[in-house]
Input
Amino acid sequence: MSLADKLSRPARHPGDPAVLESGPSSLGAADKAAKGLGWFSLALGAAELLAAPRVTRSLGVAGHEGLVRAFGVREIVAGVTSLSVDKRPGIWSRVAGDALDLGALALAFAGSRKKGNVALALAAVAGVMLVDVVTARALDRRHRREGPPKDFSDRSGWPNGLERSRGAAKDFGKPTAVRAPDAAPRSEASAASRQLEAIH
Amino acid sequence: MKALVWHGKEDIRCDTVSDPAIEDPRDAIVKVTSCAICGSDLHLFHNMIPALMPGDVVGHEMMGEVVEVGEAARGKLAKGDRVVVPFTIFCGECDQCRRGNFSVCQRTNRNKQLAEKAFGHATAGLFGYTHLTGGYPGGQAEYLRVPFADTTHIKVPEGIADETLLFLGDIFPTGWQAAVMAEVGPGDTVAVWGCGPVGQMAVRSAFLLGAEQVIAIDYLPERLSMAGACGATTLNFEEESVVERLAELTGGLGPDKCIDAVGMESHVGFSQPDTLYDRFKQMNMLVNDRAHVLREMIYVCRPAGIISIVGVYGGLVDKLPFGLAMNKGLTFRMGQCHVNRWTDDLLKRIEDGQIDPSFVVTHTAPLEQGPELYKTFRDKQDSCIKVVLKP
Output
């Protein structure tokens, strides 16, 4: 039983089934990787937004704080998307963001006084980009629709054909059927229901 | 027992859980023989409906055999009875139940105070749904405790396949109620948005009620082919304009009746820019629901027409053109299905051969494959329209 299951247990009623042993999940490895990358995006984006001067100083490109903050916003948007059910565009947007980061760092490399740090950042981004590409492609494989759509034009649902069924219910009681009927007389309530009524 | 359990967004697992037991004299225990994954289960799968908790057993379309009956339910149920379990739990005795409004039963929601805070008033308890509707364990499991079992059941005869009867518990009466709420009758043109399982049932219900023309709107070829099979005119919104095509099919008048069988997660695509806006806001928790279908229905519906909503919505919507609706004099009807209000009649129609709801089943598998089939159904892979699981 996971920690989340244990924490939610007090909110459940005593007789409700409790998880004894957990089985295989609908989440695949690629989905879990996307989740991890989504949280990584949020953390990195927050750092870029909140500590832009420190980032630019460490890369030797002081004065470009606005650009770093803009990249932070981009990271957060990519993170939110990657954590959503639309994770495929989220992770592919991370790949595009990685390319943008590589380009910006390559430009920074020429003018930086801390080339070692920029080279380290370039290597880190390249590594993360590799993980992003592998995850994005795995997500595509796992979630895309494959093969031609099936033709269900033989599934009418009419055992005796449309013409026998069309209008078979036309005497159903329109429009009174949608109106709330008058309340029926109250029936003799059972002991159990009287008990419940007392509770409510 | 084995059961499908929600552990978080997109994380459903086939777990071993403790067996249910009789807790109240009105309870019964049902051994589930067939259960299905509903479109609204996908809203839970996506964590779009608030107040689902990790560890909750999901599923609200199920049928099976009664194996244990509480003392107070014994006059109405017996061991060995074959029953479909409606997704709405109802007492049969409160004011709303006596009016047939079972989905707003005043007594079965065991988290009544929570629901009153969120909705203003509590609605009925539902199986395998949010804790706002009682947090009752669901039926994608080997066994199910049915509270208020003396009323909350549909007895069904032997000799008819599970797949034909199972959908009496939700999608068939939901599609039927959509058509009845729209007051569909002879001569009507009815437009149905969404050709998932509920949309398919709504299309057929409209024909049963005598509609002259039923227009089925979707973008997936397999769903459109299934809707076309029963005589509906199909409209692929990725290939043609809904507004223009509906005008053409109705001589410019607009459909008399519009049915929303889509709900809060309408398709997002570049051909409908408002869906991108909705998705952005939904993703950032600024709205609960994507309202594209509602907007489109209000725009195209014939003045003084009826809009019937059975697609599930969860909370706040944005940019709803209510002025159009008011000035066009539209009538809105909506709600969760009052299942047992319709099922005696619908069972008779199945027995009479007017309809066989099993047409909608595209995938049947053991319960253990449930987690993977949630993904298959959500991703619309392998032309999946309806999954039936066998515990």
About this structure: Residues 151 and 157 of chain A are 15 Å apart (CA to CA). The mean pLDDT of chain A is 88. Chain A is about 60% helix and 0% strand.
